[in-house]
Write a structure and sequence with these properties.
Structural class: alpha+beta
Largest sheet: 8 strands, parallel
Helix content: 25-40%
CATH topology of the largest domain: TIM Barrel
Oligomer: single chain
Strand content: 15-25%
Distance between the termini: 78 Å
CATH superfamily of the largest domain: Glycosidases
Number of helices: 16
Length: 698
């Protein structure tokens, strides 16, 4: 077809005769005029087909951006993108991020690491919600420069310079002011140089590959055909305590100075120096609200009460008030505010238990009967977790007609206590409440109060626990209590530290709770209490203890096979003798000091387990983000007998020179040892020390 022919037209020509008959037919057939071909159907084509760059993945990403990843404000978030293009052209990749309140993105250039994996970081300075995404495009100037580097023949180089001059002239049109003038000059310079016979190939290449020229042209790329990742990925930046915290739980009503006398907030205030001295930063209370009288439980969870029985604090509400009220025996709202302020003076934060359930005489039951599930006999269905029965607790019905009113009221409970100075909430059994409620409540609360931390007390199925974390919970209880062997611990904590859940699921491990006295602790062996404490404090960045019971090694169960404490503090006042000489308080204080002084223990990502031929010995390392702080923990899992073994540690894995000896300083005993090479011997007697927490240096 001639170059001037209209491609939308089809021109017919006489065909060569194949037979006499065809020739005759052709002679009598009149000329057929040229026809206009119909326009091609482009309805199934993309809106723009010249976008060649591919943004295949952006990480971290939680369910493709359906949920937010988590980080800590003031620390860089490292973002990875998988980007490439067809052919051999070069691409440029940019990370874009913005705070939720801003419509403007900040751009950060991404660097190619290897195998089409690009990386960059940004710093969410303040707690809050952020969004990030990635854009990429084929960059003409960078591709030209890369191609020129490979040119050898002088004639090819001269042609390439003329092509580069065209590219620079186009960049000049996108620039302004001095940069436009500079690009125009450089374009003209390349054009002149290409025609200058006095310049040889190496000089021409050096002129064109000037780094300053590349930097100038790089400011004005042609981004008409850039590719943008399909989603703006959400991110929640929390304050540091969401990642690293040490919790101590106590019942304010058992803080009294005399046995049998109901404790008060003033009594708790007197305990603050001791709790702070043990190195805790979160002081957690079970519910502090009025306790129901109808169906009140007696000592050891019996159904028949006696005079003076105080009931379970989780049976919330009576004629004295509900979730926004304080049990009068504990003190007044002013007393509580005073306690919150006093705790801050000791470096402690008060965390409140938020249990969304009601005693039968809670005001909600009378004021909003439709918020509960009624049975055909006219009674309300009480809470059950077979074989456990909670006759003193009515659960909310999240499927009621007035679900919006219920949601609004429950969120207002959080907001009320936030007004009183509380910023940390441990939420009781959140997996038994509607998931959509938590996503709405937590998201909207943190929008106005981004410093609030939510801990999910959900000992339930793994996927349910992970869903709660995705919905916004800052931390979660774990299965640590029931992970006891070396194999169980290594498998579980590898999952927590290395699995995809790391980007949103923050574990908070507890060796005991008021509900859980594990069979291992029922031995009463001090070595068991110590080794489980070391594991909790060093395996996870956040941990907690049900304080007095662990500190004083409470070990008697309510009965054979039970995980309930005998004379549980859940149902009666307890008196604790914190002056006992066998108290674990000094050991707890030492561990918490080690945690605060060593950044390696304040995150979980670097956790790595080491080999040892003795399954009664578990060993693992942690390293700070900058690599400078290195910790090696070795624990004897046998609480009665000495155990020994050879620990397999490759020095280079901790950034050490394998050809030189290195020092391991036991922060528990203050002993120092010189180690060499990969395998080194340890001996741990639980009657002396159940563990080493080594600071490693060279």
């Amino acid at each position: 077809m001639p170059k001037s022919a209209d491609p939308t037209k089809v021109v017919t020509k006489p065909a060569k005769a194949a037979s006499t008959r065809k020739k005759v037919v052709a002679a009598v057939t009149p000329d057929v005029p040229a026809t206009i071909a119909p326009a091609p159907d482009t309805s199934d084509m993309p809106a723009e087909g010249r976008t060649h760059a591919v943004v295949d993945a952006v990480l971290p990403s939680v369910d493709g951006g359906r949920f937010a990843a988590k980080c800590v404000a003031g620390e860089p978030l490292h973002v990875e993108a998988h980007c490439f293009t067809d052919g051999h052209d070069m691409i440029r990749v940019m990370l874009q991020w913005r705070p939720e309140a801003s419509a403007e993105f900040t751009e950060v250039p991404m660097t190619l690491l290897y195998n089409d994996i690009w990386q960059a970081s940004f710093l969410p300075a303040e707690p809050g919600r952020y969004y990030y995404t990635v854009v990429a495009w084929v960059d003409g100037f960078t591709s030209w420069r890369h191609e020129l580097m490979r040119r050898v023949e002088e004639s090819d180089i001269r042609i390439a310079l003329r092509v580069g001059a065209v590219s620079l002239a186009a960049a000049a049109k996108r620039a302004e002011g001095e940069d436009r003038a500079a690009l125009e000059r450089r374009a003209e310079e390349l054009e002149r140089s290409a025609a200058d016979a006095g310049l040889d190939g190496p000089h021409l290449k050096a002129l064109a590959l000037d780094p300053a020229l590349a930097e100038l042209a790089g400011r004005y790329p042609d981004r008409r055909f850039q590719t943008r990742f399909a989603a703006e990925l959400p991110l929640v930046a929390d304050r540091a305590r969401a990642r690293f915290s040490s919790w101590y739980e106590l019942f304010p009503r058992s803080a009294g100075q005399q046995p049998g006398v109901h404790g008060t907030f003033r009594d708790v205030e007197a305990r603050l120096p001791a709790v702070a001295a043990m190195g805790f930063d979160v002081l957690y209370f079970p519910p502090i609200h009025p306790v129901g009288r109808i169906q009140r439980k007696g000592k050891n969870n019996v159904l028949v009460t006696e005079d003076g029985d105080v009931g379970s604090p989780w049976a919330i509400g009576s004629t004295e008030g509900g979730h926004k009220s304080i049990l009068p025996a504990l003190g007044t709202l002013e007393d509580f505010r005073r306690l919150v302020d006093a705790a801050k003076g000791h470096g402690l934060e008060i965390a409140l238990d938020m249990a969304f359930q009601c005693a039968p005489d809670h005001p909600y039951v009378k004021e909003h009967p439709d918020w509960f599930r009624w049975r055909p006999d006219g009674t309300v269905q009480y809470a059950e977790n077979p074989p456990k029965k909670y006759q003193d607790i009515y659960p909310f019905n999240f499927e009621c007609e007035d679900w919006r009113g219920l949601w609004t009221e429950l969120r207002s409970v959080f907001l009320y206590w936030i007004e009183q100075g509380v910023r940390i909430f441990r939420v009781d059994n959140p997996h038994t409440k509607a998931f959509p409620f938590w996503e709405w409540a937590i998201t909207t609360i943190k929008r106005d109060h981004p410093d609030v931390i939510f801990l999910a007390e959900a000992f339930t199925r793994p996927k349910v626990m992970h869903r709660l974390a995705k919905l916004g919970y800052s931390q979660s209880y774990t299965y640590f209590t029931w992970r006891n062997s070396r194999a169980e611990l290594e498998e579980y904590f590898t999952e927590l530290s290395q699995g995809p859940g790391y980007d949103y699921f923050r574990p908070n491990v507890w060796p005991n709770t008021p509900d859980i006295l594990h069979a291992q602790l029922q031995s009463g062996l001090p070595g068991m209490f110590r080794l489980r404490l070391v594991l909790a404090a060093t395996l996870a960045a956040s941990y907690g203890i049900y304080g007095p019971a662990y500190e004083l090694m409470e070990y008697l169960p309510r009965g054979p096979g039970s995980e309930e404490y005998l004379d549980s503090e859940k149902y009666q006042l307890r008196s604790w003798d914190h002056s006992r000489p066998d108290s674990l308080a000094p050991f707890i204080a030492l561990l918490n000091r080690i945690r605060k002084e060593n950044p390696a223990l304040q995150d979980n990502r670097s956790l790595r387990f080491l080999s040892c031929e003795n399954d009664q010995i578990i060993a693992y390392t942690k390293r700070s983000a900058d690599g400078a702080n290195r910790l090696l923990t070795v624990v004897n899992l046998d609480p009665e007998h000495a155990q020994y073994g050879w620990i397999g540690l490759k020095p280079e894995a901790l950034g050490l020179d394998p050809s030189r000896p290195y020092t391991v300083h036991d922060l528990l005993s203050d002993q120092r040892f010189s180690w060499q090479g990969e395998f080194n011997y340890v001996l741990l007697d639980p009657n002396r020390a159940p563990a080493h927490v080594f600071l490693v240096s060279q």
